[in-house]
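Re: Re: ligand-bound prediction request (bumping)

Still looking for help on this. To restate: I need the protein modeled with uridine-diphosphate-N-acetylglucosamine bound, output as structure tokens. Inputs repeated here so nobody has to scroll up.
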Amino acid sequence: MSKIVVEGGWPLEGVLKVQGAKNAALPLMAASILLGEGESLCLENIPYLKDVETMVEILSIIGLSVSLDGNKALISNSGVVNEEVPYELMRRMRGSVLILGPLLSKKGKVVLPMPGGCPIGSRPIDLHLKGFALMGAEISISHGYVEARTNGRLKGAKVYLDFPSVGATENIIMAAALAKGTTVIENAAREPEVNNLIDLLSKMGLDIGRDGDSTIVITGADGLRGASIPVIPDRIAAGTYLIAGVMSRGRVRVEKVNPSHMEALLAKLVESGVDTSYGEDWVEVCYSGRPKAVKLTTLPYPGFPTDLQAQMMALLSIAEGTSVINETIFENRFMHVSELRRMGAMIEIEGGSAIIKGVSSLTGAQVVATDLRAGAALVLAGLSAAGITVVSNAQHVDRGYESFVENLSALGARVRREEG
Ligand code: UD1
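Reply:
Sorry for the wait, this slipped through. Here it is.
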């Protein structure tokens, strides 16, 4: 078991170049399944993460040849595409579900272990499957496996999503890529990571585009060619480092970011009185006194991201006044609350809301990371707490943050990793 040990009270100071987005890298990598034989994708700005490593393993088992050179991934289709992936690999991350759509589109058949739930919620895939069914796939679930098959090619269809699920939108886009005819996805996710996928597929020769904010139109192709694209900046990692800057009472500037993807967070930081400035590809925050309480609700993009909820809760736990966070995306995403309470935070849960009575300071404690973002939030809390905080189960953090401990150290944090 891995631990992150933080000594609180040292202000972060400096500049950090932010990694590429995990949630964009995974679907872009999955899109390689759609490549024609002999074609290759070159993905730049790939973050070096556990989840990316898992996707490399999955794609290799499927038969693609994948090489990672620093932050560049080269993925080629040399002819073989298998449609079976062992459960052990699929269960490591939720993002593995993104291979369903492209495999079904490419092979007309897919048999894969159903992804499990995870600590933050049950995370069903009914919307993904509903989309495939509308496109002509027969779906069955038995013995923990989902099987989807179609006679010949999938057919373009009109798919209305009851909820603008990010994963369902991406999977249905990729299923539609080699389908016959036109697919229209209504109430599609608006996340910038989805746009990164649309841009890649368009470079691969697919006729795809948005019609307004929430409709995506795809006309299936007979085959797709190789292409090259950079992964967009990670707005969640960027936000995490900015919140770390404020919580440590320091000054942090993140570079290589897209501030227009971070408007909900920036608005809340400004509302809580944080000195915030930004330019074309950077954002800077500077501690200017105790932050003020705010109310926020997690929502699909462009609303406040659920993936920054835990980190923002850590910040609000030391704000002046009482804050309220409504979590509307995942039903069980308050696992960090009991750990923050162990550090002295005063937080009550009422249904899907957390009521946070700000305290003037937290105290270091032994705490457990229950998931990726909860782990990051606890490290942030540790930066501001008096004394030492030990975050165990810290391997969760490696799923989404490249060199997290090293980056915080470079900014002046007293933080280290302990294994075992
Ligand atoms: C993606 C992100 C994750 C982020 C989430 C919400 C990746 C790899 N992961 O996850 O970091 O927290 O978006 O921004 O990009 N739902 C259903 N049925 C479905 C699909 C989803 O009910 O078929 C529900 C989920 O249970 C959840 C909500 O919709 O309550 C949002 O899920 P979704 O947008 O699909 O998230 P993911 O794509 O899994």
